[in-house]
Amino acid sequence: MAEELYTPEEVATKLKLSKYTIYEMIKRGDLQAHRIGRGLRISAKHLEEYLNPDTSTRQAVNTFDALLLQTDTGTYAKLAGSEVLFHVSTALNGPVQVCIEPENIIISQTQLICSARNVHKGTVSSIIQQENRCMVILDIGVPLYIALTPYSVQEMCIKPGDTLYAIFKSMSVKVTGR
Question: For 137-152, b where at least 16 C-beta lie within 10 A, e where not — what string?
Protein backbone atom coordinates (compact mmCIF):
# COMPACT_ATOMS: atom_id res chain seq x y z
CA MET A 1 0.00 0.00 0.00
CA ALA A 2 1.35 3.43 -0.94
CA GLU A 3 2.24 5.88 1.79
CA GLU A 4 0.16 9.04 2.05
CA LEU A 5 1.78 12.07 0.41
CA TYR A 6 1.04 15.73 1.08
CA THR A 7 1.62 18.86 -0.96
CA PRO A 8 3.57 21.67 0.72
CA GLU A 9 0.28 23.60 0.90
CA GLU A 10 -1.42 20.72 2.76
CA VAL A 11 1.49 20.51 5.22
CA ALA A 12 1.30 24.28 5.72
CA THR A 13 -2.38 23.98 6.60
CA LYS A 14 -1.71 21.08 9.01
CA LEU A 15 1.09 22.99 10.79
CA LYS A 16 -0.69 26.38 10.61
CA LEU A 17 2.24 27.90 8.74
CA SER A 18 2.49 29.67 5.42
CA LYS A 19 3.31 27.61 2.35
CA TYR A 20 6.40 29.79 1.92
CA THR A 21 7.68 28.65 5.32
CA ILE A 22 7.22 25.01 4.26
CA TYR A 23 9.12 25.63 1.02
CA GLU A 24 11.91 27.29 3.04
CA MET A 25 12.01 24.30 5.44
CA ILE A 26 12.35 21.97 2.44
CA LYS A 27 15.05 24.16 0.89
CA ARG A 28 17.05 24.16 4.18
CA GLY A 29 16.70 20.39 4.48
CA ASP A 30 14.66 20.57 7.69
CA LEU A 31 11.76 18.74 6.06
CA GLN A 32 12.33 16.02 3.47
CA ALA A 33 10.32 16.18 0.27
CA HIS A 34 10.16 14.14 -2.93
CA ARG A 35 10.07 15.69 -6.36
CA ILE A 36 7.33 14.00 -8.37
CA GLY A 37 7.12 15.44 -11.83
CA ARG A 38 7.16 19.21 -11.37
CA GLY A 39 5.70 19.11 -7.87
CA LEU A 40 6.94 18.41 -4.37
CA ARG A 41 5.36 15.89 -2.00
CA ILE A 42 6.04 15.26 1.67
CA SER A 43 5.42 11.73 2.90
CA ALA A 44 3.48 11.15 6.12
CA LYS A 45 6.60 9.40 7.45
CA HIS A 46 8.87 12.41 6.83
CA LEU A 47 6.33 14.79 8.34
CA GLU A 48 6.12 12.57 11.44
CA GLU A 49 9.95 12.43 11.67
CA TYR A 50 10.12 16.22 11.51
CA LEU A 51 7.46 16.66 14.19
CA ASN A 52 8.78 13.89 16.46
CA PRO A 53 12.53 13.41 15.91
CA ASP A 54 13.93 10.12 17.19
CA THR A 55 15.85 11.23 20.26
CA SER A 56 17.27 7.73 20.78
CA THR A 57 19.52 8.15 17.75
CA ARG A 58 20.10 11.87 18.01
CA GLN A 59 20.82 13.96 21.04
CA ALA A 60 18.17 16.65 21.47
CA VAL A 61 20.30 19.73 22.00
CA ASN A 62 19.20 23.33 21.73
CA THR A 63 15.57 22.33 22.27
CA PHE A 64 13.69 24.55 24.70
CA ASP A 65 10.16 25.06 25.97
CA ALA A 66 9.13 28.65 25.34
CA LEU A 67 6.27 31.12 25.29
CA LEU A 68 5.71 33.23 22.20
CA LEU A 69 5.55 37.00 22.64
CA GLN A 70 4.43 39.50 19.99
CA THR A 71 6.25 42.86 19.89
CA ASP A 72 6.61 45.75 17.47
CA THR A 73 9.81 44.17 16.16
CA GLY A 74 8.41 40.67 15.62
CA THR A 75 7.71 37.41 17.37
CA TYR A 76 9.98 36.19 20.16
CA ALA A 77 10.19 32.89 21.99
CA LYS A 78 10.94 33.52 25.68
CA LEU A 79 12.80 30.41 26.81
CA ALA A 80 11.35 28.77 29.92
CA GLY A 81 13.26 29.47 33.12
CA SER A 82 15.38 32.25 31.63
CA GLU A 83 15.29 35.75 30.21
CA VAL A 84 16.64 34.57 26.81
CA LEU A 85 14.58 35.58 23.78
CA PHE A 86 14.90 34.00 20.34
CA HIS A 87 13.49 35.96 17.41
CA VAL A 88 11.36 33.44 15.47
CA SER A 89 9.23 33.27 12.35
CA THR A 90 5.94 31.50 13.05
CA ALA A 91 2.18 31.93 12.93
CA LEU A 92 1.76 29.94 16.16
CA ASN A 93 0.76 31.52 19.49
CA GLY A 94 1.22 30.62 23.14
CA PRO A 95 3.41 27.83 24.53
CA VAL A 96 5.76 26.20 22.03
CA GLN A 97 8.96 24.23 21.75
CA VAL A 98 11.85 25.79 19.84
CA CYS A 99 14.92 24.10 18.43
CA ILE A 100 18.02 25.41 16.68
CA GLU A 101 20.41 22.91 15.13
CA PRO A 102 24.02 23.31 16.31
CA GLU A 103 25.14 23.39 12.66
CA ASN A 104 22.93 26.45 11.95
CA ILE A 105 24.73 28.68 14.45
CA ILE A 106 27.81 30.69 13.61
CA ILE A 107 30.02 32.37 16.16
CA SER A 108 31.99 35.58 16.18
CA GLN A 109 34.50 37.11 18.55
CA THR A 110 32.91 40.52 17.99
CA GLN A 111 29.31 41.64 17.69
CA LEU A 112 28.27 41.74 14.05
CA ILE A 113 25.75 43.96 12.35
CA CYS A 114 24.00 41.52 10.05
CA SER A 115 20.62 40.35 8.80
CA ALA A 116 20.37 37.59 11.43
CA ARG A 117 17.89 38.62 14.13
CA ASN A 118 19.47 36.42 16.80
CA VAL A 119 22.81 37.63 18.17
CA HIS A 120 23.50 36.32 21.69
CA LYS A 121 26.58 37.12 23.76
CA GLY A 122 27.83 34.31 25.95
CA THR A 123 30.73 32.58 27.65
CA VAL A 124 32.26 29.31 26.46
CA SER A 125 31.60 26.79 29.22
CA SER A 126 33.20 23.79 27.50
CA ILE A 127 34.38 22.30 24.23
CA ILE A 128 33.61 18.68 23.41
CA GLN A 129 35.81 17.06 20.76
CA GLN A 130 33.78 14.62 18.62
CA GLU A 131 34.81 12.54 15.61
CA ASN A 132 35.00 15.23 12.94
CA ARG A 133 33.71 18.27 14.79
CA CYS A 134 33.83 20.17 18.04
CA MET A 135 30.76 21.02 20.07
CA VAL A 136 31.25 24.40 21.70
CA ILE A 137 28.85 25.01 24.59
CA LEU A 138 28.14 28.70 24.97
CA ASP A 139 26.28 29.93 28.05
CA ILE A 140 23.91 32.69 26.88
CA GLY A 141 21.62 32.30 29.89
CA VAL A 142 20.92 28.76 28.68
CA PRO A 143 23.51 26.32 27.29
CA LEU A 144 23.69 26.68 23.51
CA TYR A 145 25.48 23.93 21.57
CA ILE A 146 27.39 25.08 18.48
CA ALA A 147 28.99 22.67 16.00
CA LEU A 148 32.32 23.80 14.57
CA THR A 149 35.15 22.16 12.75
CA PRO A 150 38.27 21.50 14.83
CA TYR A 151 40.08 23.85 12.46
CA SER A 152 37.69 26.72 13.29
CA VAL A 153 38.17 26.17 17.03
CA GLN A 154 41.95 26.13 16.56
CA GLU A 155 42.04 29.11 14.17
CA MET A 156 39.87 31.23 16.50
CA CYS A 157 41.81 30.00 19.57
CA ILE A 158 38.52 29.21 21.33
CA LYS A 159 38.84 28.04 24.92
CA PRO A 160 36.59 27.83 27.99
CA GLY A 161 35.96 31.25 29.51
CA ASP A 162 36.07 33.11 26.17
CA THR A 163 33.29 35.57 25.33
CA LEU A 164 31.70 34.89 21.94
CA TYR A 165 28.56 35.82 20.01
CA ALA A 166 26.18 33.14 18.71
CA ILE A 167 24.42 34.23 15.53
CA PHE A 168 21.49 32.58 13.73
CA LYS A 169 18.55 33.55 11.56
CA SER A 170 14.96 33.54 12.78
CA MET A 171 14.08 31.07 10.01
CA SER A 172 16.62 28.60 11.44
CA VAL A 173 14.64 28.22 14.65
CA LYS A 174 12.12 25.38 14.39
CA VAL A 175 8.93 26.19 16.28
CA THR A 176 6.34 23.53 17.17
CA GLY A 177 3.22 23.78 19.31
CA ARG A 178 3.04 22.17 22.74
Answer: bbebebebbbbbeeeb
Give me the helices (H) in the chain, please. Answer: 8-15, 19-28, 44-51, 150-155
Gap between the Cα atoms of 129 and 17, Å rounded:
37
Q: Flag whether pLDDT at 2 surpasses 50.
A: yes
Is the Cα dihedral 127, 62, 89, 104 positive or negative?
Answer: positive
- pLDDT, tens digit (0-9, with 9 covering 90-100), for 28-48: 777 888 888 898 999 888 888
Torsion angle, CA of 108/87/40/34, rounded to 10 degrees? 50
- CA–CA gap between residue 50 and residue 175 (Å, rounded): 11
pTM (2 d.p.) = 0.68
